[in-house]
Amino acid sequence: MTPILIFDLDGTLIDSAPDLHAAASRMLEAEGEAPLPLATIRSFIGNGIPVLVDRIIAATALSPVDRNRLVAGFLADYQAHATDLTVPYPDVAATLTTLKQAGHALAVCTNKPAAPAHEILTDLGLASFFDDLIGGDSLPSRKPDPEGLLILRDRLGSGPVVYVGDSEVDAQTAQNAGVPFALFTEGYRKSPVGEIPHTVRFSKFNDLPQQVESLLAIAGQA
Ligand SMILES: O=C(O)COP(=O)(O)O
Ligand SMILES: [Mg+2]
């Protein structure tokens, strides 16, 4: 059976925090609020854009009454500027090429809405590597619910699965799905590496292909 490698998006394949920060700054300026620092916005990423906006509201004088309008406005503005400043992490394309050539199916499971996720992958020249994608608005549930990973496994032939991600949410998702987890240590995690459950970890994408075979052996036994 074809092994299936599923990747998180923000903070794993791409450094999207600068564009999310820029969209947050434009929203705050339009509402008469001061911008929040990049590090603050980065710490708000991982549970989807509606939750990101909720966290911005909680950190400022914005009113929760305006939440739906702010989420809709943020989404529209972000989608129009999603790759102004966003780049893949170093060696992502080369690593995906290696993994694809090894015969693995590749997919994305992100809490970012599917439309901007697709657009970003296309704009950055990464879309053709992936066989499938589930976004934060693709299902009634989102990570850490394991449904996205389990549906991708079913769609891609039920082979052994490895999840690759950067955050506490991703670790929990892998655990909930019962699949091994490769932690990218240079993304948007909030806790020390030792406090995030992982099967292997890596700080450079070049190191991932070597680790994948051992992970797949574990996934095959699960
Ligand atoms: O919070 C988001 O919008 C998406 O984050 P993820 O790609 O790391 O799941
Ligand atoms: Mg992430």
From TrEMBL:
One of its GO terms (molecular function) is phosphoglycolate phosphatase activity. The active site is at D8. The keyword NADP does not apply. Pfam families: HAD_2. InterPro entries: HAD-like_hydrolase_sf (IPR050155), HAD-like_sf (IPR036412), HAD-SF_hydro_IA (IPR006439), HAD_2 (IPR041492), HAD_sf (IPR023214), PGP-like_dom2 (IPR023198), PGPase_prok (IPR037512). The keyword Transmembrane helix does not apply. This is Phosphoglycolate phosphatase. It comes from Roseibium sediminicola. The gene is gph.
